[in-house]
What we know:
Four copies of one chain form a homotetramer.
Chain A: E1 10-11, E2 21-22, E3 30-31, E4 34-35, H1 36-40, E5 42-45, H2 46-51, H3 74-91, E6 95-99, H4 100-103, H5 110-131, E7 134-139, H6 158-177, E8 182-186, E9 191-192, H7 200-220, E10 226-230, E11 239-240, H8 245-254, E12 261-265, H9 267-272, H10 279-286, E13 290-294, E14 296-297, E15 308-309, H11 313-325, E16 334-336, H12 347-374, H13 376-384, H14 391-398, H15 403-413, H16 423-433
Parallel strand pairs in A: 1-2, 5-6, 5-16, 6-7, 7-8, 8-10, 10-12, 12-13, 13-16
Antiparallel strand pairs in A: 3-4, 9-11, 14-15
Helix pairs in contact in A: 3-5, 5-6, 6-7, 11-12
Amino acid sequence: MSFPQIPKIEYKGPESTDPLSYRFYNKSEIIMGKTMEEWCRFSLCSWHTFRGKGADPFGFPTMKRHFDDESDSMENAKRRIDAMFEMLMKLDIGYYTFHDRDVSPEGSTLEESNKMLDEIVDYLAEKQKKTGVKLLWATQNLFSHPRYMNGGATNPDATTFAYACTQAKKVIEINHKLGGENVVYWGGREGYQSVLNTDVKREMDHMAAFFRMCRDYRDKIGSTAQLLIEPKPREPTKHQYDYDAQTVIGFLCTYGLQGDFKVNIEPNHTTLAGHDYEHDILVASKLGFLGSIDCNSGDPLLGWDTDMFCTDIKKTTLVMKIVIEQGGLHAGGLNFDCKVRRESTEDRDLFIGHIGGIDNFARGLRNAAKIIQDNVMDNMVKERYATFDEGFGKTVEEGTATLESAAAFAVKAGEPEQKSGRQEEYEMILNRYV
Amino acid sequence: MSFPQIPKIEYKGPESTDPLSYRFYNKSEIIMGKTMEEWCRFSLCSWHTFRGKGADPFGFPTMKRHFDDESDSMENAKRRIDAMFEMLMKLDIGYYTFHDRDVSPEGSTLEESNKMLDEIVDYLAEKQKKTGVKLLWATQNLFSHPRYMNGGATNPDATTFAYACTQAKKVIEINHKLGGENVVYWGGREGYQSVLNTDVKREMDHMAAFFRMCRDYRDKIGSTAQLLIEPKPREPTKHQYDYDAQTVIGFLCTYGLQGDFKVNIEPNHTTLAGHDYEHDILVASKLGFLGSIDCNSGDPLLGWDTDMFCTDIKKTTLVMKIVIEQGGLHAGGLNFDCKVRRESTEDRDLFIGHIGGIDNFARGLRNAAKIIQDNVMDNMVKERYATFDEGFGKTVEEGTATLESAAAFAVKAGEPEQKSGRQEEYEMILNRYV
Amino acid sequence: MSFPQIPKIEYKGPESTDPLSYRFYNKSEIIMGKTMEEWCRFSLCSWHTFRGKGADPFGFPTMKRHFDDESDSMENAKRRIDAMFEMLMKLDIGYYTFHDRDVSPEGSTLEESNKMLDEIVDYLAEKQKKTGVKLLWATQNLFSHPRYMNGGATNPDATTFAYACTQAKKVIEINHKLGGENVVYWGGREGYQSVLNTDVKREMDHMAAFFRMCRDYRDKIGSTAQLLIEPKPREPTKHQYDYDAQTVIGFLCTYGLQGDFKVNIEPNHTTLAGHDYEHDILVASKLGFLGSIDCNSGDPLLGWDTDMFCTDIKKTTLVMKIVIEQGGLHAGGLNFDCKVRRESTEDRDLFIGHIGGIDNFARGLRNAAKIIQDNVMDNMVKERYATFDEGFGKTVEEGTATLESAAAFAVKAGEPEQKSGRQEEYEMILNRYV
Amino acid sequence: MSFPQIPKIEYKGPESTDPLSYRFYNKSEIIMGKTMEEWCRFSLCSWHTFRGKGADPFGFPTMKRHFDDESDSMENAKRRIDAMFEMLMKLDIGYYTFHDRDVSPEGSTLEESNKMLDEIVDYLAEKQKKTGVKLLWATQNLFSHPRYMNGGATNPDATTFAYACTQAKKVIEINHKLGGENVVYWGGREGYQSVLNTDVKREMDHMAAFFRMCRDYRDKIGSTAQLLIEPKPREPTKHQYDYDAQTVIGFLCTYGLQGDFKVNIEPNHTTLAGHDYEHDILVASKLGFLGSIDCNSGDPLLGWDTDMFCTDIKKTTLVMKIVIEQGGLHAGGLNFDCKVRRESTEDRDLFIGHIGGIDNFARGLRNAAKIIQDNVMDNMVKERYATFDEGFGKTVEEGTATLESAAAFAVKAGEPEQKSGRQEEYEMILNRYV
């Protein structure tokens, strides 16, 4: 066992003071017609949790994992996979996610890398079968290797573009083989460091071509995996084309890809783009584009992706309310794209981070269900827009209003009545639930 | 005369140390086939320059203007217009812009407001005729009056929505009458302060309906004015739907309005959205959406719109390079949506601010022309993307590449050659021109 | 009555859903040996609450208050004071704060202003006597009038400096007369907009001179009011000399004033300076400089002072924990330097904002007391530093260690044992209390 | 030779288009009584330039240096030193800087590390002798090794504190041996990630103890090296005690160390702290604390230390103006704590980055001298404060003014005359020089 000192984590209720227990996550409990497990679809990520060692731009790795000898061997890769599945079992959650290069070493040629990856995929398939754990999504790492320093799908060099395509092709295949429910595209190097050396139009066109090629190939091999683009604003590339949810949705509409891709939202990216934690999730959901969530959190005072476990119950409540309102995450899930702090060096910290993350979203789910069932806030909002349910307002929503009909209505109606937005009261009500 | 102490500003060349002279702006000098005047199409704004008095959230107005008795009378409105045209003549520039409520008082009813506005429009038409100055664009103020506190086109109340439509209708009419080349839509209150009390989907739908109604009415009355949306991220409303250029373009594509609207970019809004000064101008231009520019500048360390005159020659150079590359601003212009600092209380400061702004963009134009004519940087960029001009790269741009053809190419090509991005050299070259 | 529709707000316990009740603030309930009232010392501010009308840089006032005819008359000033004391009674809290120019009109000369202020002070004294309400602090407004556009104590002009001194002198006097427990100095215009036109050394020297003169005068007239400087980083002046708590403390030490002034911390200013909400309160408290708190909150995504009521229970908990640990606020208090949103236009909103603010700090106090009494976290922290309680560590704290004694110890001790920081566990424990 | 393809860089004047030449830096040219070399005192840093390989949090190293086999051997360490001195000769600049662990490997014990370091120091001494290059400063790396993850001088563990002291002791010794003119203290891990697990008071006390111990030891061994603390706000530790220049100066005053330490300012840290590029340099200089400058630059839109070469001539002009005004940098210098972008992978880029940096500060020096000699701006500033040169104003500066004397003066003087701050004119004048 990789984590001999860690027990299976069990639900002990809100009074529990055992850090190795759940206070809110009770997997099979029914909330508004679904189990908590079905609502949350929690997922472990292979990169931060099994490859992250605490290095930062100013410091060396701090964490030693006893299941990882830090070699590039296949044996070591499999040991890390064993540890991941042990952790999945101990946390009692059902999904995992990976990049191709997290789970399998990079060889000296593409063919060699792919051969090793095939062997690892067989190993993962076997693990999935034994445990019942499923693959939420796979993705390709087109940002760590020096060949991608100037981009993958937007690299000025066509050979590198082709290399990126080859990795993407392989990921579509192995994801299909493993029954992955989504494929994710995060374009960390798709953007510019300097406008001086960049042809932004050509790069955006190439990115669109890349997405079209991926969609076509998915269809060709008979995969039905949902395709998801993950927005991020400014790291590692100064400007990334996938800045935020609305930018991605706009990009998809501009290039006619809006029927084929949805978005995977990471709230830490949302706040880096200058929006509230829940903004991109909300907007994507309301526009019909919310595919999945990387349920982490950032520090609003730091200018980079800190990938922390979310500890703010108000935020988890608002997110789970949106999830309930769209009837669940469907093929998506809540993926812990989170890491323990560099100073949290013990295996125990790794579990406590995840337990906290799981419990905080479970608590958010409970709160959100109660808010929806009480129907106090939603009723207030509905009432606020009531003038668009009838008369002139209705013609606006039906598309028959004109500036002239509006002017006629306005002159007749006279000065509009002032209506308080009552923000403080909404906030007070929300605070009753958290 | 409103500014008796200010002479007509003339071009005296780069050695001039007279603050009331141009060092770079030589109106009729030909640069790359057009006069400087034609490239720049400078425009005075009526709000900051003729209505702004230096108030800020912590302080009262500091500026007394001798042409403004601070009353709401029509006489006073006309005196301000006289001053504006005097300033246009003294600066020797050809365009101006206004909001309906800058130039004309708000009455106690819509009808009364419109009646006064009609009288002012006649006055403006007469002034235009006398001076040859033209209207770059008009716009409606849907953000200052308390009725718009919860939005204009996105107000939860249909009566207020109708009121906003009525102002917009009038502006389309008067702009047409005055030969305005554009109509601008800036949605300062179109967004949310709190997601708790907001139905974002309904509000975005209403905003799209409003834009459709405006387009239809423009067409109906036979106006050919270009319609422009001006993005802004977070002030005065915490989140605005028109966050930045790509968000607006995406919105237009989502709602099928992409053929009817372009964007008016204000760089201070761009930097507030977290992008480089020139980013929105660049992206909008390359995607075919750049309509006009509000040529101001912000302070990257302050979190609000400071609306300063741009003093950074590197930035004006990059902007004018984009303008030249798209063949000029066409119906758009460089509008000084800028204000002197609250402590710059003399009329002389008002002129010096504008002279600096004009000269800095003129200097940028001269630099940009030299960069383009030397063709050093652009050649370096072209060379950087050369692999997409032939072979596999060309099939990507033509749309015939597939992941399979890419993989075949990549395997054959082997590891891509590393190519330095040479950012420091590009920056060194740019510094030769500024 | 100014607020006939608002009842006296009473404690109804955590299950209450009446927005016009307290769920957590039970004034006379004893927590850790003091009443909640004694711990919190809540205070109403006269400016936002009785002078703020919802204007912002893009919009006119939105709020009509029936007790305010918006004239500059003494009658109106007294009506506002009546409303303030009515609100104090209805909220059942014991302190208020004001700027000289909030409560009393500015006359056409200093003498006239002071004469009116004297009349108002008599009126306030009478009100205090009738109600038992006390003055937490008074302050001078040296930032709103145009004369202060270039600063008060740091104005380049000695006449304006003298004017500022005169207002400060009067405030020390009236504060003494009204039994005010502190005098506050907030230097909104004490800084620079541009280094180009500023002699920062001379300005800092003048600021120190001003503070010395204030201290001397306070002593001279026999006042024992605590003197407090309020830090703020970048608004309304681009750079303010009182940037944050440590900058102010450093300034005081540099100029030998550290025994005479403490700080009044406003967390919205702290976050604008780039620190965590509780940072300045913490650092000031630990260094012995925490005098009082303006208990508001900002929006981390907006770059200005939003002065919102604090709705984050985790933050109120951390603040009240610091307050308990230093044995209370002594002469200071929790002053609501907060305003309702511009769209919250009803009197009811004004009360709900304050009730929420009061309840959230009361809830924080309850949480903090429980954390301290359980002593789980503090014990963990104490244990973490235990090596400084003995041996070599103790010599460091006693001041007898040298680099040589350290080196001898280090060589003998060998590589230090790695100790996890356990941040996720601390966060998990904190979440049990909120 | 490590850089066989790079010639010696020579001054060719402003018209040069050879990227491997100086356009502005003419080493022995006299500017205002000193050579450019004396004013600038340029220095190469060993870490970014000779150890940096382009890794970032999302990607592996991109740069291969032919003089570095990436081993930890002493031979490799010496090869890197050879390359550094070759580069110093080719750039023709006179200083270098290093951290102990940049230039020499870390052994398995302190003793072993120190033994290797001694050998390297001998090698450096020999190189210095051969080339005439001098050591600007040495410093200790107390942030990269995992033992320092919770801090060096502020580590909760006394053994780690002692380890940090031991490194600091050795650096004072070797710096003395090599004739280093300063020792620098940058406390990257001296702060907190979370207030929950931190005793900030104890940590600050320990930091002060550490500084005292360093000062005492420097004095004891007869070194006269200037001791410099380098402020930085939020990276790698969320909050660092040395936030900015004024915080450090305040800390020194609080703990009575103000006579023993100055500051080393890195402008990229200054902007991360929310101040203008030149702010900390200016304030430190005016308060008598400016010791040396790490002359890099950041990106105002990115939230971390990008350590770029400064390309903004206006900023280099303002910095060099401050340097001239304080009579030069004395023991300090302009140290290139800068790195080429990750995508700039060739040796040529490394030289071009430095040439650009050198030339931009040389250009700034030329501009600054001209501004000072023309004396237009400084005269305007002097005039602005003239009222403090006589009468009441003078009594303020002399310390004899009181609130009472101020009030008497103010009443007599009446309403102060309004004086424009003329910021736009100052900016226009500055633009004449850049």
